[in-house]
Amino acid sequence: MIELTIAQAHKGLQDKKFSCTELTQAYLNQIEKTDNKLNSYVTITKEQALEQAKIIDKKGIFNNPLAGIPMNLKDIICTKDVKTTACSKMLEQYVPPYDADVTIRLKKAGCVLLGKSNTDQFAMGSSTETSYFGVTKNPWDLERVAGGSSGGPAASVSANQTVFAIGTDTGGSIRQPASLCSVTGLKVTYGRVPRYGVISYASSFDTIGSITKTVEDAALVLNAIAGKSENDSTTPNEPVPDYTKFLKENLRGIKIGVAKEYFENVDKETINTIHKGIDDLKKLGAEVIDISLPLTKYAIPVYYLLVKSEASTNMARYDGIKYGHTTDNAKELLEIYMKSRTEGFGDEVKRTIMLGTYALSAGYYDAYYLKAAKVRTLMKKEYDDVFEKCDAIVAPTSPFTAFKIGEKAEDPLSMYAADKLTVPAGICGLPSLSVPAGFDSKNLPIGMQIIGNQFKEGNILHIGHAFQKATNHHTKKPSF
User: Fold this and answer.
1) pLDDT value at position 207?
2) Cystine design at 139: which of 173, 198, 326, 478 (Cβ 3.0–4.6 Å)?
């Protein structure tokens, strides 16, 4: 049962081959058996999950494709009466009094919550090594990272600890771990899924998406979570199509752009694997053209200047007074602020606050934040021009495969460079999909990234689905 996709599990529930309780218990057993090795979960909601499953079985209605399907949520997505810690000491004991919009929508669809999955602290990182609860290990090699910040969700899907997971992607936090763990990761257009109830990292970049076993599953989840919300003014009145209607198996009439900038300073095995994937897309009928995105070289500095600035503002709410960690050894108000934040935040969050505050400060705002914001606008224009020539861009997801735990932990700039191929879509608010494309000589997964124009999730799901129907990379599972 634990190897089933959403579509397969849904059919099994409808045909009464197994109950929702049996399916849920199978995943809880797998978590119990494997999570001491992986550390994918920070909270397991065993009793709540089985109670939910019993209620669903009693109703016996499985019309919704997600009804009775077990899943987990990245631990920055609010869940009423279930701890949401952002994997930080600051929120170690925080229990939200409300659900995030995405949580509400999945509950309404009938999903069963297995628990909350591990992430870099406040989603700041590319390896889950900044998590207060320890690093998540990669199921393909337990000495390596699962990626980040949605490393827990990606590892849990890869290791059959859940049917699917919901993560967040600011600059690559769904796609990069999906690539490193050989699963399917979807970053949506900015505003396609409401952010209400999701702990903010950088408010003009953050998106909520899925990590699944297949592109078909990603389409099913997106149907349930996309759309306007009264709680989030950044969700536009853009209609939500049935994304499963885009899942065709040939690519005739589809034009794919390949930019040389996405292949610079990338591992040779990764380059070869992605070029082979592009050849597979040609065989399916796609036309491939060369394009150029020269501003890509500025993506990392632009991205980190802007997100650190926004994050430094968002972190100001954690003051040790209203909620979250409060120091025990301070008497005056300023001392409470300083000691609570010193004790509650990890090194990467502190680094973020300092960098962001510096970039926004008087005398430096024009030179850093404003300049980066202007380049962001130019990058968006560059992508707009490219999408007049093609339907999607295909590139590697990560410049390298999973690295050893600790290998980049002491070098922040090296860690930031891990996101260099995923941050452009984040900067420009574009949808992007990572699908398994093969393995290197060490049997480590390589992901192929498919980037589309805003609100054109249908295009990238079409390409990804056709690729998965023609290949079997996504069907291979780790033996850990």
Assistant:
1) 98
2) 478
